[in-house]
Amino acid sequence: MFESAELGHTIDKERYATEEPALREALLDAQYDLLESKKFPVIVIIAGVDGAGKGETVNVLNEWMDARHIQTHALAAPSADDTERPAFYRFWRHLPPKGKTGIFFTSWYTAPIVMRAYKTISKADLDQRMDEARRFERMLASEGALILKFWFHLSKDQQHERLTKLEKNPKTRWRVTERDWTHFEIYDRFRKVSERALRETSTAEAPWIVIEGADARYRNLTVGKAILAAVRSRLDKAEPPPVDAPPATPAPVDDLNVLKSLDLTKKLPKEEYSHDLEKLQRKLALLTLDPRFKEISVVAAFEGADAAGKGGAIRRITSALDARLYHLHPIAAPTEEERDQPYLWRFWRHLPRLGKLSIFDRTWYGRVLVERVEGFCSEADWMRAYAEINDFEQQMTDSHSVVVKFWLHIDQDEQLARFKEREATAFKRFKITPDDWRNREKWPQYERAICDMVDRTSTEIAPWTLVESNDKYFARVKILTTLVDRIEQALDKKK
Description:
This protein is an alpha/beta fold. It has 20 helices and ten strands. It has two domains: 3-236, Rossmann fold; 270-492, 3-Layer(aba) Sandwich (Rossmann fold), CATH 3.40.50.300. It has helices at residues 13-37, 54-64, 80-83, 89-92, 110-117, 123-142, 156-168, 178-185, 187-201, 216-236, 270-289, 310-318, 336-339, 345-348, 370-374, 379-398, 412-424, 434-441, 443-457, 472-492, and strands at 42-48, 70-73, 101-104, 146-153, 208-212, 297-304, 326-330, 357-361, 401-409, 464-468. α5 (110-117) packs across α9 and α11 runs parallel beside α20 (472-492).
């Protein structure tokens, strides 16, 4: 895989002096065209052998282009804040918006490759990490990101020569650390691990570009021209044709589905409700005070039919909690900032630390519900969203989050009665909007979308709880019972 990067590539001074000014001008033109169009973000990954000129090349890119529109991230070891959230959280936070460029000097490849070279993870672990990276990049590419991955290579002799030269020069001696020499001692192991990682993750949407790093002029021109060609090609290309989506799940031929199977006549007497509510709220409060609660986090996701009682159920949860322990996130239409990022970005940024709860009133499932039914995204977008959402929830549970998802369901007659009550009650009028009435007209389409959502995303790690909500008392007790049980199960595993 690295043979072509060990041929002794060089560029002489005269050629470099001729080509550099034109390349810089073209890169700036492309950068400003991208900034004006805001068509897509550019994500540049810089990785490779120690001493191969990665940092110098990043400095050159910032010099050649307008650094105000380039975000360079040399992420150090994960902070305490990072380690309490999914592994990709710190990369999600730094993704560039549409129109701008993000350079990752430390990326999602760095830690797995180093850990495997030091034998602190197995081959299977490395393959799993590379599979996660591949799916992450596929999602970014599907959202429109241009991903450019550069691997800077040196042969073992070239690396030794480079580190020795840097160390002898008083002006560059500081750049060579004991860690660099330690990595040199296990060069062969690093090479083998790196080849495996690149082989597994060089894909059509995000291929690796391997560059010989011994000659600064060669690597500068190579990287600059590769970025220019990729950005200019994407900018000058017409809008791509729509992607054909796989067929949706067929509707059941007998017209029975998970929503129609719910018994919406279930009720709970007020006296029993009051007793159960007090007991469950007390239990929930005590669970959050358990010392083991600091080892987990909770993500409570609420979806449901309009007027199904999400707000009332959420208030019965929050009234039992210390306000310092939870954050409530009401999800509305995305802002301009959020539209410039991948769809899941606005949810990633609100994930809780250990010992905390995040409650989402509407969620990441909007893409497969309202966006699907209302035509706000393409069929290909909402079809791929199921897998992306499952990945998202897998990463949450891998980082010790308890993901509890509720769908609150009512029948059409009950919804109509609640709509009319809201219109007739002065202090409830804000709860009813024209959108609610329009959504009601599309009840069959939403029903189909909900059933597909449950079928495709109710997993063993994050199952859906379908809540019969015609009776609010019954619904609230079922929700609290489910939440308490799921937290108890998670705490029991911490013994």
